[in-house]
Design a protein that fits this description.
With 151 residues, the chain is an alpha+beta fold. It has one domain: Lipocalin, CATH 2.40.128. It has two helices and eight strands, in the order H-E-E-E-E-E-E-E-E-H. The termini are far apart.
């Protein structure tokens, strides 16, 4: 009788593990936090669902030599699809999978990866001056073949 109870408990335990594993692939991910792109060093996107689904796009304007901000909103359409609405991104649809998404900027596709789950909203970003000469020298270090991650 004791052997029968042990087999019964073991069977129930295995069934629970198998059924919980099946549900994990159907997770929906909430688009939230701060995202950056390795190809665009002075660009970040911030998604804040707690502030009425507000979207922030921080980028550098090389002509004016300072940071710019595009603020808008985003809307969840399915478990992993979102639509971004702003002056630059007019109803652009993205698919958020695990920790990132692809988006088209100036007819080129870029991958943005989440660097923080907390939305990092920057104040007075537009008044910040960026020295292009210093940044070009700094970025050239990361373009060196020994620093490039080829994985």
């Amino acid at each position: 009788m004791k052997k029968f109870n042990t087999v019964k408990i073991l069977t129930i335990f295995i069934l629970v593990i198998l059924t919980s594993g099946c549900r994990s692939s159907e997770k929906s991910f909430l688009l939230r936090g701060t995202f950056t792109c390795t190809e665009l060093p002075f660009v970040s996107m911030v998604f804040d669902p707690d502030n009425q689904y507000t979207f922030y796009y921080y980028y550098h304007d090389y002509k004016e030599g300072k940071g710019k901000l595009d603020k808008g909103s985003y809307l969840k359409t399915t478990d992993s699809n979102y639509i971004i609405k702003s002056s630059i991104f007019n109803n652009i649809e993205i698919t958020y999978k695990k920790a990132g998404f692809n988006i088209i900027i100036n007819d080129k596709t870029y991958y943005f990866k989440q660097i923080d789950a907390i939305p990092s909203i920057q104040t007075n970003y537009e008044s910040r001056k960026i020295d292009n000469e210093k940044n070009i020298k700094f970025n050239s270090l990361f373009l060196h073949p020994y620093f490039i991650n080829r994985n």
